[in-house]
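In the previous chapter we treated chains in isolation. Here, by contrast, the input contains two separate entities that must be folded as one system, with a combined length of 741 residues.
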Amino acid sequence: MNDEMRLFLGFEALAPWPSQFPNGRMIETKSRHITTAFFGNTSLFRLTSLLDDMPKPPWNVGTVGIFDKVLFLPHNHPRVVALNAPPLTHSDPFFSYQMHLTTWFEEKNYQLDKRDFLPHVTLARSPFNATEWKNLFSPLPYFTSSLHLYKSLGNLQYEIIWSHQIKPPFTEIEHVADIAFQISGQTPEEIHQNAQIALSFHCPEILPYLKRENLSKSLPQIMMDLNDLVSLADQEIGTPFKAVSYHGDLLQNKNGTLTWMMIIDV
Amino acid sequence: MSKLEKIKPGMYLIPKEGQMKVPGLLIANDKILQEIDIAKPIEQVKNVAHLPGILGYSIAMPDIHWGYGFPIGGVAATDAVDGVISPGGVGYDINCGVRLAIVPIAYKDLSDKVKTDLIQKIFALVPSGVGRGQKHKRALSERDYSELLHEGASWSVRNGMGFEEDLDHCESLGVISGADISVVSTLAKDRGKNQLGTIGSGNHFCEIGEVQKISLPETANKWGIEEGQTYVLIHSGSRGFGHQVCSDTLKTFIQKGYDRGLPDRQLVAAPINSIEGKNYFAAMAAAANFAFNNRQQILHEVRIAFAEVCNIAKEKIRLIYDVCHNIAKFEKHEIDGTLRKVCVHRKGATRAYGINAPELIPLFKETGQPVLVPGDMGRASYLLAGLGNTNTFSSCCHGAGRAKSRIQSSKSWAGVDLIEHMKQQDVIVMATSKRTISEEMPDAYKNVDDVVEAVDEAHLANIVARFRPHLVLKG
């Protein structure tokens, strides 16, 4: 029986997507991803039999990053519009993991793409107006969570047929009066970074104000830095936030992941 | 959760436990207790009871909900000498408050066109929404700041935005003394420099409607309020200026370690007579005076709108009262039979002085002070008269209190034309953000009727009048 199908591994990518994009054949929001290994047409049975042994990402909280430019791929004869997706957290492990995965599958006689890894999220396929896309682009925050094995169904449709669950770096939670997020990370610095990205999901305009270096190592300092970010951005551009509360503590679960409930006064 | 002991009509005691220095006191009736999820805010009431120098009770009003350290709807009085002052007991939006004015025209006499023109005119004159500041006014200079932060609302009056009589109708005559501009950061001044006379976002608003029902005719008559009259209710605070004062202070207090020994970092509090405590009070007073000016200038623009659209002279629109509901103030209260000077923190609570309170002007000495309780943009708001209840340090509720989170409210109204829906309820809403409308729909709030019933039952204030909103401007 021929069980060949078009398969690839990719990280689910989430962002505060604008409600409207320029023209193009759009990929559905729920199917947007960062491809890490593209197998082309291959046997589903053979590939899935390897997944348990396949190396898994060395992080248990998803990555965050900023889409910083629009790409038209491949460069010579563009057929897709994509957003460049350099990770801000786990940057080195992200690249090393992709390389490790490629090597591992090559050892299993898979022929994978040899080009340098370019993390990106494809948004649309041709026909599209590149100038319009370029003109309307503005940076957006994103995060990745679980790693999925996708099956391409054609016509821009994808089906998830296997998943390795990874905790999202933040989730918005109910708060009676204000906005609240459950922030997760493996270190206090990651908590700081992920909290900044969570804020930018509500207001992408604050991205230029994010602290990129010397992230804080203690929760009180993280709270102070986030308040400095909110104050400056609110003074210069206006934001929906007024302040980040000094609520709560960093909690550590049994696998070492840190969490903090961030509450924002609006 | 702690067992509540009913001690008087509308009052429940939360017994002392652990390191609590005083018991808690919850103002509520059976209806309120059935409706609200009380566990988390009650924990906060108990946490507040740990503050050094707290006196009497750690108090929660019937509009209580979960806040930052203090519950929203919380009151705590600390000793003015040995106690502490806590920015969490005031809140980020220092002197967030409400002012009520009465327009000498029956609401039913306003035509549909006049109503539409009026709300549009106010929307044009009073900036609202995220980050929106004044574009047609010059930014506040250092000199402006140094004057207005000391003078309070009289600065706006002196600059042609209001009338001398307005000041008599403001809590503390529209000024908190003790402000010091030198302790306010440049960033706070930058955040506020274009924001005087602006509503802001979130739950702030300007609403116009009709006096629907008078419950206490004698008091209403003394205040010049009649059924059917048009009213204006303005809810705003100290905008980015006050938020920055609070943020700056929290940072300093935490860096100084003033959160040690407290059950919640957000209760961080400095001794009132420490340098940090005094500096906070001076900066808070400055922010409070900023807020008095903000509401004064919003009312000024509303008066202009009525003058232009309805040909009603500005001076005919009478300010009934302006109250603070996020503030710390030095007041004298009787505790265990002794008159003591205390610092009363009201976080989402309103002062409710009764008859003959020394600070009140003669009119309100006769009646008790007006207490303003906005509800939601569909059902009602209330005007009450304070009774000076000694159990609550003469404090009362400040609103309806949220029943649903912002996300829940937005989700439940997804796909509905909210402007049209509200129009069907005879309410015209204008806002810069549709999201704000969905977050602020009437069912996102508890029924204010139940809240005021509880404070009436507990003898904190008497209901004077119920108002029905019709024209609402949101952020």
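Chain B touches chain A through 35 residues (CB under 8 Å). The radius of gyration of chain B is 21 Å. Compare these points with the single-chain example from earlier in the chapter.
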